[in-house]
Amino acid sequence: MFLRTANRHCTSQRVKNLLDARALSSIASNTNNSGSKSWHVASSGAFLVGSAVAAISLLSDRTQKNRTLLEAAPLNQDECEDETTNIVNWSGTHAVNVLNKNYYEPETTAELEQIVAKCHEDGQPLRPVGSALSPNAISFNAGGMVSLANLDRIIKIDKENMTVTVEAGARVSQVIDALREQDLTLPNLASIAEQQMGGFTQIGAHGTGAKISPVDDFVTSLKLVTPARGTVELTPEDGEMFQLAKVGLGCLGVVSEVTMSCVPAHHLLEHTYVLTRSQAKKQINNLLKKHKHIRYMWIPYQDTVVVVTNDPEDENSAMLVEGSNKSKAGVVDSFKPLRDLLKELSKDSKEPMTDETLQEKGFGELRDALLSFKPLSGDHVKRVNEVEAEFWKLSEGYQIRPSDELLQFDCGGQQWVFEVCFPTGTYQRNAGHDMQFMEDLLKKIESDKIPAHAPIEQRWSANSNSLMSPAHGPDGGLHCWVG
Residue 393 in 3-state DSSP? Predict the structure, then answer.
């Protein structure tokens, strides 16, 4: 018997943030004479990073009323089969209605096997969904979906062999918490730790680091529930089939169990600072070799590139943090440029924004609210990008925290996403395609006056051996990700 009730593993803080951002956007909409629907178009035209297909557990609504993820309500026990489940993705940019009889949430692997076999027998499509992180809704299919949110056990932590085995529905954050008790952690993360492990690996999620492969390359074995062969276990000894299945996008079957390599838990020193575009281009090759993790965030229409590096803590790290804190003592609040512009833009509205009403709002919420006034106006977006550049200049500094805290971060607001990955030479010799791509992209945006808000995020990774990974290539390869 399948569990057919709504899953709400999404944290209450995430819902609160979305509600707060929607409230801010609503105020902005009241002052926008163009009549645009601010909440739904605030990020249109933007280039943002968002690579994972599966992240937080589904927020679903089992009634015929089309509700949003913020309005989803508990189900009635006597729901009918012709009622639908309405699923909205993490970013609130896509939704799908699936008949309840075609939407499955198995509680055991045996139930999952029965579902896959029955759908295969009936010729019914079945698309596995992690938790709907994908801003592009790649996992949505009105014909049939299966969520593994209930298959979330941490099966085994093998400290001697430095591996962890989990059911595919286990969230990355769950796994991190369990590993922390054993002084272990995952080798890399992909920004948002509410992904499910199945989606985390199946879509080739990546962090950043010129010598660090995408996360799929750390998979040591997996179990796949297939239509024709039932459940199969694949390891490196299975050769090409294993390398295909590691980034299978659900095409080869439904991943039910994953084993991944771990590393010792460690702290990182993070440095956030700002460069000009010419400085960023000139320094990139040295920075890629100097830092374990590095990412660039380019701000259209501004000569500003935000650099974030992360390296293992050493004997000098505490001194750098102390010096950074002293230099910022008494400096103006970094959020002030964002709040000041919001107050100016809303001063003629029915509910003008004040320092008091904006005090608890995060960066992503403030940026969403700013963009929602005129999201498709190039001049307005330039103005928002300008205050964002000021925010980052005021945010320069160092901090030390556990790696699993620093490698996940707030991606900020609604996202319509287009991300590309391409080879740019080798670790030893960068071919320069990464900087040329950014030069061409920014030139196109700015010459055509495209209302592209910040950031355009750029990361790097080593190659992956997974045959369907965007970073597949020979050992020693360097790949660039831009979104």
Answer: helix
Contacts of 35 (CB under 8 A, 6+ apart): none
Q: What is the mean pLDDT of residues 118-145?
A: 88
Burial of 312 (0-12, 13-18, 19+ CB in 10 A): exposed
Residues facing 275 on adjacent strands: 305
Contacts of 337 (CB under 8 A, 6+ apart): 387, 388, 390, 391, 394
User: Other CB atoms closer than 10 Å to residue 288's CB: what's the count?
Assistant: 19
Domain membership of residue 32 (yes or no) is no
- One domain for residues 277 and 413: yes
Can you tell me which residue has the tokens 């992909």?
190
| pLDDT, tens digit (0-9, with 9 covering 90-100), for 442-469 | 999 999 999 999 999 999 999 999 999 9
In a shared domain, residues 335 and 433:
yes
pLDDT digits (tens, 9 = 90+) for 1-24: 222 333 333 333 333 443 344 444
DSSP structural state of residue 410: -
Shared-domain flag, residues 230 and 166? yes
Q: Are residues 261 and 372 in the same domain?
A: no
**Order of strands, edge to edge, in the sheet holding 95-99?**
60-61, 84-88, 95-99
Nearest to 39 by CA among 412, 418, 373: 373
Q: Do 237 and 223 share a structural domain?
A: yes
User: What 3-state class would DSSP assign to 135?
Assistant: coil
